[in-house]
Amino acid sequence: MMETLRNIFDTHAHYSDEAFNGDRDEFLSELPKHGICNVINCGDDLKSSDFSVKLAAKYPYIYAAIGIHPECANDIPQNYIKQLEALITKEKVVAVGEIGLDYHFKENAPKDIQKAVFENQIQLALKYNLPIIVHDRDAHGDTMDILRKYKPKGVVHCFSGSVEMARECIKLGMYIGIGGAVTFKNARVPVEVAKDIPLERMLMETDCPYMSPVPFRGKRNNSKLIAYSAAKIAEIRGTTIKEILETSRKNAETLFNINN
Asked: Quick one: average pLDDT of 93-110?
């Protein structure tokens, strides 16, 4: 099954992560042979954002997103927006991300700092008419308040909210990113969201090297494994893997303004 699939567009990967340090170039060189047409490689701090831009320059099928992840909001220089702005005009930068709010870990930056960093980056994206890639963990209320305030285009990645929240995001013009979580044993809410949302608002993603789908949980995730998430979504929706992959690819091309 996995050998014949095409149109795999991974809208959220972290190939700058140290998990790929041992075989990154070899691995990325082979990905297109496995049906991967495009990858959005996301930054989570200034260093990884710069690395993302470099990966996009090296590999034709990779595009870059640049941004400060909420878990990194404590460790940024005062001129971080200026530094991001220097990257945003580079070739093949198609989004500002991964940005957002994460209230899960106590050691993360205080909520007011996270919100300020999030809003500043949304304003940067709006200035350059780029979509945002949103991280929302245990912060649904504040995330939605900020999205309602600015109404940016973009995607709520690794969506973990309710069906009702997904519907509201879509009303605001956002897309919903779905990945390996939909395959997990107790994934009731992700399954409900994958079934409920319009297919034309769904994006496929890995969040690799994290969030590997069943049967690869605990192992390094990669773009090839999207096929397993797509198979589960096809089962949930009563359609085909091919339709899931082709439609989500078109959605991604539309959102990130990529013309293959």
From this structure: 97
